[in-house]
Design goal:
CATH superfamily of the largest domain: DNA-directed RNA polymerase, subunit 2, domain 6
Number of strands: 34
Radius of gyration: 35 Å
CATH class of the largest domain: Mainly Beta
Shape: extended
Number of helices: 12
Strand order of the largest sheet: 12-26-13-24-23-30
Distance between the termini: 94 Å
Helix content: 10-25%
Strand content: 25-35%
CATH topology of the largest domain: Dna-directed Rna Polymerase Ii 140kd Polypeptide, Chain: B, Domain 6
């Protein structure tokens, strides 16, 4: 019986022996007669052969195995080491081939060379291929489960470090640079492949796994103030402020300058104090909320037909760039250039030193993230018999439920590496053995289980339990409390709804949603809820008969007058939400009569 053949989803013909056809196809590809990016599958359940050549498919390299024997020999490996042959030569010789997700269905791939059997068709180039670039940087990763590996990978992407070498001449949005980044003691092969030493994003710190007066529960960490004063996790935060002279119809243009006092919307003279003659701030100026960085005036927004011919009399408006609510910093860099249209473009960059504080987020490479809950004075931090003090005190409850065994392995390996003065290889599936690391630690005079006797920094008493303490690579994440802290009592409201504005930069309100409301209901805090839910409270006159919102008639001395039945009905002042009043207006625009029934108060 003939089997249908499909190329990229199109029927092209039939073959009598599908198994022999697929085998011949693969053999020809390995000989180089068919491109390496073309894949084939003998789909037996559906009785068809599928050939894929389309672009955009993911292909991955695997080593070819025939009759349980690997085609890659020790001779090939030696030639690769000596640069006598290259990767492409192995592909041409049919030793390596690329599979897509479809052809992989018909392959039986071994992870380790020792696992090979006559049934296997391929071998992984490296077990490390199972994970991505960032995930492969997690030390001892094969001792973690998948979810934590994912989180550890994502956390590394959010870590502060040296993101580019030329950051000093760039205008990037919202970036940080760690002052003293370090290369990890516990490394993976990927750290060397990716030249991680040129762009590190963390620091080697001493971590003790213990409780500290309850401050480090719920994943929080306690940090040693002495370590912070010595420069641990310090970073600089950079943010640009940009302005340009825009051109408008009618030959009008913005002007970057110090605005005159007759300009519409002129601020206080104090706000312009940092501007030089050209209307631009000078470098290293220490500025705060409300201060102007780039002075600018613009033509009036709306011109009537008569104004167009009398441009000289038009009053210009103020449109300077200033710092928003809660912002502060030092002017780091001022850059003058032109945009694509040839208009003047001014870019200034703000710099702010960020010293670790309560609320800043830290993580290890194993997804064990937490915020600083307490900065402990150095004299109160527990110490070992040799006088060693931890930089970070990590809570014990983060380990059992998360099962991040590699977190503990890294502490042990980091301690060994620091004492032996060497890097420890912790590449996933190919790491140094735990037994060897423990033995090396014992030989340098420490307990092989990583624990030590610690003393209470406050009372000087010896702790009755052994404390697990060692070296670890910790990352400071970009989520800093200085960027997120936000509170408001009263402030600006939106014009349409009269509800608070949204967002931290606009001095917006903090939303108390349905679930937050339930917590207050459970507490019986009804007056607090009444206060929270009247941000757009308004009092309106409502006619008793018509049931419609009325208006105040200026001709009758500001008296409330009904729109439907003037002088015929009694008015009542009712307290409602302004959003509800808007909804009634929407109903009326749809031709619906929203009649409000007013009950008299006795």
């Amino acid at each position: 019986m003939a089997t249908d053949v499909f190329v990229d989803g199109r029927f092209v013909g039939t073959v009598k022996d599908p198994e022999a056809f697929a085998k011949r196809f693969v053999d020809e590809r390995r000989l180089g007669n068919i491109p390496i990016s073309v894949n084939v599958l003998n789909d037996e359940p559906r009785e068809r052969i599928v050939v894929e050549t389309a672009k955009g498919r993911s292909l991955r390299p695997v080593l070819v195995v025939k009759e349980g024997k690997l085609l890659l020999t020790d001779k090939h490996v030696e030639q690769l080491r000596k640069n006598e042959i290259a990767w492409t030569d192995l592909i041409k010789q049919g030793i390596i081939e690329y599979l897509d997700a479809m052809e992989e269905e018909a392959a039986y791939i071994a992870i380790q060379k020792e696992d090979l059997t006559p049934e296997h068709t391929h071998l992984e180039v490296s077990p490390l291929d199972l994970v991505g670039l960032c995930t492969s940087m997690v030390p001892f990763g094969n001792y973690n489960h998948g979810v934590r590996m994912n989180q550890g990978s994502k956390n590394q992407k959010q870590a502060l470090g040296l993101y580019v070498a030329n950051y000093a001449v760039r205008m990037d949005m919202d970036v940080s640079v760690l002052h003293y980044p370090q290369f990890p003691i516990v490394t993976s092969a990927t750290h060397y492949i990716a030249d991680y030493d040129k762009h590190p994003s963390g620091q080697n710190v001493i971590v003790a796994v213990m409780s500290y007066q309850g401050y480090n529960m719920e994943d929080a960490i306690v940090i040693n103030q002495g370590a912070i004063q010595r420069g641990l996790a310090r970073s600089s935060y950079f943010r640009p402020v940009v302005s340009e002279e825009l051109r408008y119809s009618g030959g009008l243009i913005d002007e970057i300058c110090i605005p005159d006092k007759d300009v519409k919307g002129y601020r206080a003279e104090h706000d312009y104090r940092f501007l030089e003659e050209d209307g631009i701030i000078y470098p290293e100026a220490v500025i705060a909320e409300g201060d102007v960085l780039i002075g600018k005036t613009s033509p009036p927004r709306f011109l009537s037909s008569t104004d167009e011919y009398n441009l000289a009399s038009n009053q210009r408006r103020e449109s300077s760039m200033s710092l928003k609510h809660g912002e502060k910093g030092i002017v780091d860099f001022v850059f003058l250039t032109e945009n694509a249209e040839g208009n003047k473009l001014v870019q200034t960059r703000l710099r702010e030193q960020r010293i670790p504080e309560i609320g800043d987020k830290f993580t290890s490479r194993h997804g064990q993230k937490g915020v600083i809950s307490y900065v402990a004075p150095e004299v109160d931090v527990p110490f070992s018999a040799s006088g060693m003090k931890p930089d970070i005190i990590f809570g014990t409850h983060g380990i059992p439920s998360r099962m991040t065994v590699s977190h503990l392995f890294e502490l042990l390996a980091g301690k060994t590496g620091a004492l032996a003065g060497r890097y420890v290889d912790a590449t996933m599936f190919d790491a140094e053995h735990e037994v060897d690391i423990r033995e090396e630690l014992r030989q340098v005079g420490f307990q092989d289980n990583g624990t030590e006797t610690l003393y209470n920094g406050i009372t000087g008493e010896r702790y009755h339990v052994q404390i697990f303490i060692g070296n670890m690579y910790y990352l400071k994440l970009k989520h800093m409390v200085a960027n997120k802290i936000h509170s408001r009592a009263r402030g600006p409201i939106q014009l349409l709804t009269r509800q608070p504005t949204e967002g931290r930069a606009k001095e917006g309100g903090l939303r108390l949603g349905e679930m937050e409301k339930d917590t207050f209901v459970a507490h019986g805090a009804s007056l607090l809820l009444k206060e929270r839910f009247d941000s757009d409270k308004t009092v309106v006159p409502i006619g008793e008969k018509s049931g419609l919102i009325s208006y105040y008639d200026a001709k009758k001395g500001g008296k409330a007058t009904s729109t439907l039945l003037p002088d015929e009905e009694e008015m009542h002042n009712v307290e409602i939400s302004y959003a509800f009043k808007l909804m009634l207006d929407e109903f009326m625009s749809l031709g619906v009569y929203p009649k409000l029934v007013v009950n008299r108060k006795f």
